[in-house]
Amino acid sequence: MERQVIRGFCRLEDVGKPKAEVAAKRVMERVSGVNIVPHFCRIEDKDIEFYSDFNIIALGLDSIEARSYINAVACSFLEYDFDDNPREETMKPMVDGGTEGFKGHARVIVPGVTPCFECTIWLFPPQVKFPLCTLAETPRNAAHCIEYAHLIKWDEVHRGKAFDPDNGDHMKWVYDEAVKRAELFGIPGVTYSLTQGVVKNIIPAIASTNAIVSAACALETLKIASGCSKTLSNYLTYNGVEGLHSKVTQFVKDKDCLVCGPGVLIELDTTVTLQKFINMLEEHPKLLISKASITYHGKNLYMQAPPVLEEMTRSNLNLPLYDLMDKIPKDILHATGTINKDNKKSSGLKKLRVVFKGIDGVTDMDLAGGA
Fold first, then answer.
1. Which residues are catalytic?
2. Out of 155, 317, 325, 331, which could bridge 275 as a Cys pair, Cβ 3.0 to 4.6 Å?
């Protein structure tokens, strides 16, 4: 929900309260028969089973990382038959929307049928970053001066003290230093609001754009829930920068996608222990998962955290994975951990299609393309 609408919901007594709780309360006051349970936490704080209770996931997220995480969670419920066809009863549809000024998009993701977020990650441009040499030596605009104060000057003056973008004193210090920098190089335009926008990477929100995109998302969610009409296929773009333009593009699913595809095929001997399997994930070129937690059909085979679960599942590390998977020749595992990609670390969840060699029922086709 757009923050302008939430502000319209707020009362003086709501100041300081989580917006999820305030919004839920106001909607239930206005719409009879609606039951909304707000959750004030990070999306990663909820376990996978929490998300399994939902039939549709509607996203209102503000970052690529958050979308990637929820996309991976939703796709983790997807199961394929032995012919690599997705099973309809395991699909968990997602409706996603986002805006940037006068631009916006709405999309429908049906895992296994339409492209998931990871299939089309290239749609999102890389984050704008300024070379440090430009910031330090040849600033040319107000943003350069702000980032100089934020990234360089802060560490010089406050060694060992982390910058908190939500701390008003910290932000005011960056603003003051940016003004000094701008005056030194004769650069106009440094304001406190611009300083907040640059440091926090805030993109101005336009209520009308948000209303158009959120309405499209609500409509597509209604279609999925009721079956009253065919859903969007599968990506709507809206552009109101020069006049008004909208377009629907049908992107194609990546059959080799590591998130919504059948899974990374891994061949194993029946003697491989769970510990050895976890070690293999760190070196696998398509995975590179460190500190992995492993689940099998909702059962925790090994959990890195919290400590109580780590202790409870530690004894499984020395057991053959084949035994822990009930001696089933081929099946799906899920691994959650730290993914090292392009020298960047992020939390993620991957689907693994495990096939044990030398077992009756495992065909050459099952082993084709194995790692």
1. 133
2. 317
